Q: What sequence folds into this?
């Protein structure tokens, strides 16, 4: 892909701005945030909790991958020494 095409593609994307309320990005043209615009304080709290859970899920997945690669490295090492 040439740089010109990339620039054109970027130009086609709607401008985004960060919502001051929920911190997520939404299309600038919209008056209301598409993430929290329809939520009351309760709903906003639930949104934050869900974000937190997703983050935790990713962290534990990363740990599992790390553990897996350590085990593989140890097995490789053992197979070399024997
Ligand atoms: Zn928002």
A:
């Amino acid at each position: 892909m040439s740089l010109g095409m990339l620039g054109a593609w970027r130009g086609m994307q709607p401008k985004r701005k960060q919502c001051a309320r929920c911190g997520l990005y939404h299309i600038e043209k919209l008056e209301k945030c598409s993430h929290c615009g329809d939520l009351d304080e309760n709903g906003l709290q639930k949104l934050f909790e869900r974000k937190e859970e997703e983050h935790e899920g990713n962290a534990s997945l990363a740990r599992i991958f790390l553990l897996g690669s350590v085990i593989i490295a140890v097995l490789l090492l053992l197979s070399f020494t024997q």
Summary: The radius of gyration is 22 Å. The mean pLDDT is 89. DSSP finds two helices and two strands in the chain.
